[in-house]
């Protein structure tokens, strides 16, 4: 399948020139940029920083004088150009870069014509414009995709985590009721369809999988390079697994059992078992939390675990 062709239309009146590089880089991940236009009053001193970037990035400036105070002529010119480009049939999508809600109707109109509409703007962008786009990207996220180790959201004007978690839970439940597995990629697509401005970078993550794992609500399973997602076991299921591990350790007798062997047995019986569900990063540390067991080294200096119940003393 050929890459989609996009028209990039930038509102220079309320977007900083510092974003031009990441705007072009981000849009290139969606397709080929065939139109690159930016709209503003280039006689204004406010446009100076943009002028320095236009030639280097081959962006065509479109002049629009501010003839009337209080009226945004730039918006009107951008909208007219967008419709002209639409009728040429030369593109399959548009990228509108603005933090202005005035482009909400334009985004909706373009989507009605079958266009994919990528919106980009700062965090202050109203939700009306965000949800009118096929997808919306916060410019503050671009070029700064490190994990947010303190777990706090970077943005406040996007969909809340709780709403995302509830949506994922409903997706999983609905599919499981139909006997279907839920793939991670399909969940991501569904979330964007529901919330065009959904982006894990809004919450301090670079990967959807890490975002979901850290929620403590979902379990990810990888098989043949396909990642599926399911709801975590409830507390009753967790207690069943704990009891099973105790049984295996006890059955190993005084010789005990190695950590690797024990881990393989548990994973073999419970495919979805994950020590992170119990608050541990390593299987050995999880086993150390058990009561009534002893950890020791065998003659090969390998760690083993055995029960210290009286019958084995």
Q: What is the 3D shape?
A: elongated
| Amount of helix | 25-40%
How far apart the termini lie comes to 69 Å
**Biggest pleated-sheet summary:** 6 strands, parallel
Rounded radius of gyration (Å): 27 Å
The oligomeric status of these chains comes to single chain
Element-by-element helix/strand order: EHEHEHEHEHEHHHEEHEHHEE
Number of strands: 11
On the 0 to 100 scale, the average pLDDT is: 84
How would you characterize the overall build of this protein?
By secondary structure, the protein is an alpha/beta fold. It is 37% helix and 19% strand. It has helices spanning 20-28, 48-54, 73-88, 104-112, 127-132, 161-177, 184-194, 208-213, 235-251, 259-269, 283-288, and strands at residues 4-11, 31-40, 60-63, 93-97, 116-121, 135-138, 218-223, 226-231, 257-258, 293-297, 303-307. It has a six-stranded parallel β-sheet, sandwiched between helices. The longest helix has 17 residues, at 161-177. The protein is elongated.
Concise structural overview:
This protein is α/β, with parallel strands linked by helices. The protein has helices at 20-28, 48-54, 73-88, 104-112, 127-132, 161-177, 184-194, 208-213, 235-251, 259-269, 283-288, and strands at 4-11, 31-40, 60-63, 93-97, 116-121, 135-138, 218-223, 226-231, 257-258, 293-297, 303-307.
């Amino acid at each position: 399948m050929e890459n989609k062709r996009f028209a990039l239309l930038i509102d220079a009146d309320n977007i900083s020139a510092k974003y031009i590089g990441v705007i072009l880089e981000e849009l290139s991940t969606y397709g080929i940029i065939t139109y690159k236009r930016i709209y503003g009053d280039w006689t204004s001193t406010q446009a100076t920083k943009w002028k320095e970037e236009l030639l280097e990035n081959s962006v065509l400036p479109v002049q629009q004088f501010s003839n009337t105070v209080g009226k945004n002529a730039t918006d009107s010119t951008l909208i007219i150009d967008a419709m002209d480009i639409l009728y040429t049939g030369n593109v399959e999508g548009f990228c509108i870069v603005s933090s202005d809600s005035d482009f909400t109707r334009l985004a909706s109109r373009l989507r009605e014509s079958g266009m994919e509409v990528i919106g980009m703007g700062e965090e202050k962008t109203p939700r009306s414009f965000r949800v009118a786009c096929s997808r919306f990207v916060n410019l503050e996220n671009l070029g700064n995709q490190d994990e947010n180790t303190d777990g706090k959201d970077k943005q406040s004007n996007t969909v809340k985590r709780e709403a995302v978690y509830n949506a994922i839970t409903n997706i999983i439940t609905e599919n499981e009721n139909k006997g279907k597995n839920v793939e991670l990629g399909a969940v991501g697509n569904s979330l964007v369809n529901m919330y065009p401005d959904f982006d894990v970078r809004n919450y301090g993550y670079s990967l959807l999988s890490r975002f979901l794992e850290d929620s403590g609500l979902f379990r990810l399973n990888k098989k043949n390079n396909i990642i599926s997602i399911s709801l975590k076991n409830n507390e009753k299921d967790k207690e069943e697994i704990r009891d099973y591990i105790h049984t295996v350790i006890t059955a190993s007798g005084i010789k005990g059992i190695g950590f690797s062997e024990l881990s393989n047995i548990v994973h073999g019986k419970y495919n979805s078992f994950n020590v992170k569900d119990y608050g541990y990063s390593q299987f050995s540390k999880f086993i150390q939390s058990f009561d009534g067991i002893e950890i020791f080294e065998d003659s090969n200096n390998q760690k083993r675990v055995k029960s210290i119940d009286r019958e084995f003393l």
